[in-house]
Amino acid sequence: MSQSTATRRDALLRLAAFLPKAGRHYSAHRNLDKGAEHQDSVSGLSAYIRHRMITEREVMSAVLATHSPAQAEKFIQEVLWRAYFKGWLEHRPQVWARYRDDLRDAQAGLSGGNKSYHQAISGRTGISVFDAWAAELVATGYLHNHARMWFASIWVFTLKIPWVLGADFFLRHLCDGDPASNTLSWRWVAGLHTAGKTYLATKENIERFAGARFFQYGQPQGLDRLAGRAVALVEPPLPAPAMPQLPQLPVEAPAGGLLLTEEDLSLDVTFSPTGVCLFMPTDEALLPMAAGVRAFKDAAGRDALARAAVKWPAAQVTGIASAIAQVVDWVVEQQFDCLYVAYVPQGYIRDIFSELTQALSGVGCQLLYLMHDYDRLIWPHTAKGFFGLKRHIPGLLKTLDLVRPEGVEPVNEQLEF
Hints:
Elements: H1 8-18, H2 24-29, H3 46-50, H4 56-64, H5 73-91, H6 93-109, H7 115-121, H8 128-140, H9 145-158, H10 163-173, H11 179-190, H12 203-214, E1 257-260, E2 275-279, H13 291-311, E3 316-321, H14 324-334, E4 338-342, H15 353-361, E5 366-370, H16 373-378, H17 386-390, H18 393-399
Parallel strand pairs: 1-2, 1-4, 2-3, 4-5
Helix pairs in contact: 5-11, 9-11, 10-11, 14-15
C-alpha cells in the first residue's frame, strides 16, 4: 500500500475489480498466500475498510448485488469478523487495557536485550518463510491473513516471544492495523480469545497454501524448527462481558462541527456540518507507526477532507489537528457549542478521547457520538464466539436491506466517489 492509493476512489476501483471474484472464487482460493505482488484471490480492501474510506455496508451491498448470499457467504463472513472483534472488545474494554499494560511491561523487558525479538522483527530467525513475511510486512504494510496466522503462531510457540510484542509489531506496520482485530487475532492464536483453543503453524499447512511461493525451489530453511504443539497461554479471569450504552442523538440535534478521525473517514452523516476538521494525533500521543503506515493514514485523511469540501461546500473545512489543543482552538474559533464525531471504538484513539471530551467541555462544547446502523445492529450479537453472530447473519443482512427478494434482478448501486 502507498499513500498515492489512499483514496476512496482507489477503494471503489479495487472493489469493482474484485466483485467478479467475491463469490465461489474467493471461497476456494482465499487462503492462498501468493506474496504481496500476486494477491489476486483477496479483495485488497482491508486498509480502506479499516479506516472506513469505504464502509462494510457498501462493500457487502456491491457483493450481494453480484452474487447470492450462498455464493458470497465466505466473503461476507470475513467482512463481519471485523465487526465481531470490535463488538467483542466493546463488551470487554479491560482486554485492551490489559494489552496496553502487558505491552509496556514486555517493552521494558527489552531494555536488557532480547535476541529472539530483534531477530524476528528484522527477519533474521533462520526460518525462511517467517523471515520473508517479516520483510514483506515492513516493506509493504500488508500481509495475507493466513500468513498473519502462521507468523503469530511461530512467534508465540516456536520463538516463544511475548505475544503482545508481536501484536505491537503488526499494529505499527500494517496499513490495515486495527486495535480490535489485531489484538484479538493474536489472542486467538495464543489460546486466550477462546480459552484453550490455539492455532499451530505446520509445514504441511504452509506448503499447501503457500507452496507456489515458498516450495517451488525446494525445502525452505528452518521449518524443522517449528513447534510440534501449541500449549495455550493463560491469563487471570476477565470480568463478565457488558455491552456499553450506545449513543443516541437528541431528537433535535443542534448544529455543529464534524470531527473526523482515522477510525471513520466515510462522511456518512445525515446532516450538513458547519465545519470539518481531521483529528490525527501524533505518534508520540499514540504509538510509533512505520513511516509507510503514517503516510497512508495522512493521505487518507487528506482525501477525506477534500471529499468533505465537495460534499459540504458551505462548511469551513480546515486541515489536520495533531493535538487536542488544536482541536480546542478550532472549536473556540468557530464558536461551536456542539461537535460531532463517529463513535470511536476501543483502541489507541479512544484512549485519548476522555482528555479531549474534558478539554471541549472546558470551552463549553459538547462532544456527541454518531453511530452507524451497521455497528448498532451487529455489536449486541458479539458478546461470545463468532458463531453466536454467524447464526444471525441472514437476519442482519435483511435488516440492513442487503438481500434482494427472490426473483428480483440485482441492481448495482452507484457508489459516490
